[in-house]
């Protein structure tokens, strides 16, 4: 039973995800029987997650998220397989991986780790997350760069926000004074 053509169809569009196709595919996967079928579905999805086009990869991650949420424990267990983890590691540690794809993948992994933290069938996912951290994957969200107007070129020992607060107080004192 191959899912390749359905996965390509559900992840091939430009723009928004095709939720009709995603839901139909999730129903097909959920209604299939056995771990072999779930593994084949995961293989098909991961082919698209590893695709060279970031737009396709983002759509594939949307599909993967939908499958994890809707296809049951047998599909969820695929997140703990060596096959899945090897692919994810190569994407996250790959030097040519699109930053948005990597960030979305890390968000999903964090979400699943939190969602399944007490699920016995998912304990290997937590081990995998720790291994990724040891391998250098940073799961913190990228901090927004501070606006350039708050940065100071002076050699003040205060951070820019503290210096800005101090300057505001001094200006208020001068107005009052």
Automatic annotation (TrEMBL):
Secretion signal, residue range per the UniProt entry: none
Gene Ontology cellular component annotations, sorted alphabetically: ESCRT-0 complex
Protein name: Signal transducing adapter molecule 1
UniProt xrefs under PANTHER family: JAK PATHWAY SIGNAL TRANSDUCTION ADAPTOR MOLECULE
GO MF, one annotated term: phosphatidylinositol binding
Compositional bias per record (Basic and acidic residues), positions renumbered to this chain: 168-177
Region spans: Disordered: 138-177
Gene3D superfamilies registered for this protein in UniProt: 1.25.40.90
One of the GO BP terms on file: protein transport to vacuole involved in ubiquitin-dependent protein catabolic process via the multivesicular body sorting pathway
Domain VHS: residue ranges: 9-140
Amino acid composition bias (Low complexity), ranges on this chain: 140-165
Entries under InterPro entries matching the protein: ENTH_VHS, STAM, VHS_dom
């Amino acid at each position: 039973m191959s899912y390749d053509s359905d996965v390509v169809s559900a992840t091939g569009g430009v723009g928004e995800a095709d939720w009709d196709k995603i839901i139909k595919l999730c129903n097909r996967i959920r209604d299939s029987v056995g771990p072999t079928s779930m593994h084949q579905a995961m293989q098909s999805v991961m082919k698209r997650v590893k695709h060279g086009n970031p737009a396709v990869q983002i759509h594939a991650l949307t599909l993967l998220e939908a499958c994890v949420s809707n296809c049951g424990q047998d599909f969820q267990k695929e997140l703990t397989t060596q096959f899945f983890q090897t692919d994810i590691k190569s994407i996250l540690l790959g030097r040519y991986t699109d930053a948005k794809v990597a960030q979305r993948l890390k968000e999903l992994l964090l979400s699943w780790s939190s969602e399944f933290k007490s699920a016995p069938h998912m304990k290997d996912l937590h081990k995998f997350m720790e291994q990724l951290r040891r391998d250098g994957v940073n799961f913190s969200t990228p901090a927004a760069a501070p606006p350039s107007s708050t940065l100071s070129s002076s050699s003040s020992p205060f951070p820019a926000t503290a210096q800005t607060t101090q300057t505001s107080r001094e200006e208020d004192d001068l107005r009052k004074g």
